[in-house]
Each structure stands twice: as C-alpha cells, then as structure tokens.
C-alpha cells in the first residue's frame, strides 16, 4: 500500500489507530501536541512507528493521504483546517477501524446511561456465549483490538465527539439513550447542534438496520422530527404503552417477537428509573439480534454495574458514601438526586461545560441538606443554590470534601459525590476523582 497516514493524538484512540494502520500496511506517522505517555512510546517504538510529541512539525502534511484524529480534537483545530484547505481527507479512529471489521455492530450513544447500557448489552452477549468485543468510548480502542483480530459482534460506546468523526460507518443497531445539555462548549453552546451530532449516528444508517430510542426523552423526540432516518425505529418507555419495551405496573415487557419477555423491575440488578430505561435499551438490542431470552433475563438480573456510577463505597457511623463521579453533566446528577432516599450532603463542582443548574433546584430543595463544592471555580454553583441551601462549603481536594461532609453528616444521611461537571481542574479524569473520593472515605 505504502500510503501515508498521519495520526493526530497519542492517547488510547490515536495509538490504537497507529497499530492497526501499521499492521494493514500504511506508512504511519503519529504526532501529538503534548507529551506521549512512556508506555505508549514504548509500544510505538516496538512496532517501528514514527512519532513526535510536544508539538507538530511544519511539514507534517507533506505527502499525506489520510489523517486520523483523536475525537477530542475538533474540526476547527488549525491542522485540520489546513488539511481541509489542501483536500486531505480526515476521519476518526472509529471510522478507520470500521474498514477492517466485518462483525455485527451495536453502537450506543446518549448524554447519560450510555456506558451502563453498553456494558449491560455486552454482558448479555457474553452470557449468550457469543464471540463479542467491547470498544469505543470504553475500554481498549476498537482499532487496537481489530489489529489482534475481528469478532462476530462488537458493542461500541460512542460519544458525540466520536460520532462527529464518522463518514460512512453506521452500526447495525444504534441506541440513543437520551439527549441533554452536555458538552455545549464544543457545540457553540447550542443544544440543537449537540442533538444534531447525536442523531447523525441514526441518519447514517440504511434501510434494514435498526435504531432504538427513548420515547420518554423530550429532546430526542423534539429533534427526531428534524432528522432523516431510513432505519427501522424501536422505542422504549416507562410512561407510554405502544413501544417495543414498556413498563406495565412493576413489570418490564419486551414485545418485539412472539417470544416476548416479561420481568419485574424489582428483579433488575440495578435500580432507579434510569436503569429501567438502560435495561430496556439493552434488552431490545439483544432481541433484535436474536439473542436467547434466557441470557437477557440472566443479565438483567445479575449485571453488576460500573465503577463511579452510583457506586456504594462505605457506611461510616451510619453515614452512606456514594461515588457518582461519572456524573459529569446536570442531567446525570438529576438522576442521582432523584434516586436518593435519604437526606443528601451533595459534593458538586469541577469544570463547568455550560451548565444550567435551574432544573436541579426543586430536587435540591427536597433532598439536599448541605452542598460541598469541589472545584477551582464555583461561582455558578454558589449563584444557583445560595438562596436554596443554607450550608454551602468550598473545598479544594477530595480528602477535604469527604472530611467536611463527614463532619456535616449524621446517621441515616448520605454523602453523594455527583459533580455535574468535568474533572480536569483538580483531577486527571472522572476515574481519578472517584478513586480519590473512595480513598478518602476509607481513610475516615
């Protein structure tokens, strides 16, 4: 082949694309504006892949046939704009990986619940004994895994950033969990732009493919009317009855085939209205690909959930500590507060992504006793809740936040880390934030 591919970004996505491209005969160059982790440099060195770090050289685009960029790099980045001006094609790792995948694909996106739904769907397929891989926005990059070998099925979590980098690829089954105000800083602070990104995954599908959507989600339904979708749509709902999965009293009912499945919500491994919806989406996806219902039922009853999402950490002198660090937007935190059944000491804050906290005010009034800010810039939180909650404390570390919460708490109350914000002001990522929170709780 000997065509030159330029990989922009030396993280999980970029290095994965570089490994796959090298194996498929491309002439690979990887460039990162920042430092590349030592382990990733060792990987590139072992494979003989050229790379540079801490900046892009001026002649980087010379003789370049294709650019694969990491999803965190926007189309407006100077190097991408220069490539466009020179008619050099670009795409993201998911699109590039799809060239070399032949298995059935399930692509799952949404502002909230996509990781849980992705892992739940993957769990169903594993329990059914199928040859299935897990990739995308969770775990190891799809490209890196395809360099090792293909699978019969791939369950992919897809962020809006990853969807933006797609050209032709569309999953055989697409799941849109919901649309809420998230990542608006990337979308000109316009929810319609963000919604368009999410729905474009469905618009890329063809007749004969399937789309699964949330009939209860107002923004999904609003912008669905503006989308051009050729695939067959199946809906799930906890409020409506004419859907592929519905709630009838306390029972979830799946009615896609004559071999329907009915099970009590009390038998679900994960509780809360949002997890009923996640279970419905995963169950429909499995049903559409003819997974035996015994595997679906077993998974819905036994799936263990994911770290950092409403994760019970410990009970210290009767005070529960819950790690919901993965709640990086307002809607995700809304679900966490909605599911609380004890007075809450709420730890919130971080990098604001254009948040509007007004939707949380009624829940906060009803359920929250005290607020602890965990971030460098808390003015929007203080502005939103100063007249609502009498006790608001600012802290600068997970340890300080946990110790303050413990001092404020009483037996029978709950300390909930549900930040509604990104983590990059004080932490490496939401996992680091959650892990530091858990460590601080265990040190009490």
TrEMBL record:
HAMAP family in alphabetical order:
MurD (MF_00639)
- What is this enzyme's class at the first EC digit? ligase
The record lists the lineage as: Bacteria, Pseudomonadati, Bacteroidota, Flavobacteriia, Flavobacteriales
> What's in the GO CC field?
cytoplasm
Per the record, what are the reactions this protein catalyses? UDP-N-acetyl-alpha-D-muramoyl-L-alanine + D-glutamate + ATP = UDP-N-acetyl-alpha-D-muramoyl-L-alanyl-D-glutamate + ADP + phosphate + H(+)
Q: Residue ranges of the Mur ligase central domain?
A: 108-285
User: Which species does this protein come from?
Assistant: Luteibaculum oceani
* Primary location: cytoplasm
The entry's ATP-binding residues are 110-116
Q: Give the enzyme's EC designation.
A: 6.3.2.9
What are the GO BP annotations of this UniProt entry?
A: cell division; cell wall organization; peptidoglycan biosynthetic process; regulation of cell shape
Q: Where in the cell is it found?
A: Cytoplasm
Q: Which UniProt keywords apply?
A: ATP-binding, Cell cycle, Cell division, Cell shape, Cell wall biogenesis/degradation, Cytoplasm, Ligase, Nucleotide-binding, Peptidoglycan synthesis
MF (Gene Ontology): ATP binding; UDP-N-acetylmuramoylalanine-D-glutamate ligase activity
List the protein's name. Answer: UDP-N-acetylmuramoylalanine--D-glutamate ligase
Family that this chain belongs to: Belongs to the MurCDEF family.
Mur ligase C-terminal domain residues: 308-421
Q: In which pathway does it act?
A: Cell wall biogenesis; peptidoglycan biosynthesis
Q: What does this protein do?
A: Cell wall formation. Catalyzes the addition of glutamate to the nucleotide precursor UDP-N-acetylmuramoyl-L-alanine (UMA).
